[in-house]
Amino acid sequence: MGLSVIISFIYGWEMTLLILSIAPVLALTGMIETTAMTGFAKKDKQELKHAGKIATEAVENIRTIVSLTREKAFEQAYEETLQIQHRNTLKKAQIFGICYAFSHALVYFAYAVGFRFGGYLIQAGRVTPEGMFVIFTAIAYGAMAIGETLVLAPEYSRAKFGAAHLFALLEKKATIDSYSQEGKKPDICEGNIEFREVSFFYPCRQDVLILCDLSLSIEKGKIVAFVGSSGCGKSTSIQLLQRFYDPVKGQVLFDGVDVKELNVQWLRSQIATVSQEPILFNCSIADNIAYGDNSRVVPLEEIKEVAKVANIHSFIEGLPEKYNTQVGLKGTLLSGGQKQRLAIARALLRKPKILLLDEATSALDNESEKVVQYALNNARKGRTCLVIAHRLSTIQNADLIVVLHNGKIKEKGTHQELLRNRDMYFKLVNAQSV
């Protein structure tokens, strides 16, 4: 704008002063149009976002909605949200038309004044026709552009703040780098685990201590079960072993070596997890099992071997397309027990030294639990196995049962030893047997 004014003064100072006097009017027209459009754009975005949430919720929970016969309610809520957006669009058209007419009336009024005075100056020989058009164009359009920009100044400020926050996140280095090539990669892995005076709290809840001076040694090939109430630190313990987090105090040792000194990818390649809700991908059964080892192309024969151990091979062979059968989105074409056994087969494919079972049978019915438990018993052989369980009947044969309470070991021993103690574990068993 400054350069435009300088050029305009060179061509004719009188015409320039006039156009500068009406420049605020031209800037106002740009502000009016941009403000009207920006305000309605925000409303449209909010309503469409709300409609999208309703549609997503309906699709993700379609079975529950159908079982509750709430289809009409969701359909009505979705239509009402779109109707609001439709009414906003009609209102926007009317208001924008008024704003457009008013702002352009001001523009044409400014044009009329400018051209009338410019014609007078041309007749008087004070400015050339070219000079008048240069002055008018330079200042008038510059003023309108400034008006449009001023309206967006708050949005620019918010965008700048958001971008700064985003770039700060992108530049932030992870405490635990999953892609780092640093760290030890031992040639021999046995599967001994030790928690040595481990304390931990989550970064977002530093006032709540999840684990407090936890010390526990687990020999290779042993089955160790963690039990206790929700929030006592069971799942946190295995997350520390997988090095999703580092303890705030103490050490987690893998074959006598602090996990912080080991290569993260190597460490996690020695561990396989079977969780309560297995995650399957929208591809074939063979592909889902093969995802267990991405370091190589897994032959079908090897996939069949782990499927046999997981007690799922016979079921797969009975399907029309066998191992090429598609499981659907999130495994929706399979039952809970079938998905769980596929997850076990996938876990076994990488030949892990440590098997983590995080409430692997808690979401299954009794019949499915028996089948999956048989598969888990096969999977445990020759491996260090850490089990998190709420159903205590599934861990009675564990070599060691650790009862956690408020982040500390309340008691530990075999099933029979803990029953004789008649303490916390005894109460938990009795509560489930009632």
TrEMBL record:
UniProt KW keywords: ATP-binding, Membrane, Nucleotide-binding, Transmembrane, Transmembrane helix, Transport
Domain ABC transporter: 193-431
Membrane topology, record value: Multi-pass membrane protein
GO terms assigned for molecular function: ABC-type transporter activity; ATP binding; ATP hydrolysis activity
A GO CC term assigned to this protein in UniProt: apical plasma membrane
Protein name listed in UniProt: ATP-binding cassette sub-family B member 5
Family according to the record: Belongs to the ABC transporter superfamily. ABCB family. Multidrug resistance exporter (TC 3.A.1.201) subfamily.
Keyword match Transit peptide: no
Species, as recorded: Gulo gulo (Wolverine)
Location of the protein in the cell: Membrane
Limits of the ABC transmembrane type-1 domain: 1-158
Transmembrane segment boundaries: 6-28, 95-113, 133-153
InterPro entries, per the entry: AAA+_ATPase, ABC1_TM_dom, ABC1_TM_sf, ABC_transporter-like_ATP-bd, ABC_transporter-like_CS, P-loop_NTPase, Type_1_exporter
Pfam families: ABC_membrane (PF00664), ABC_tran (PF00005)
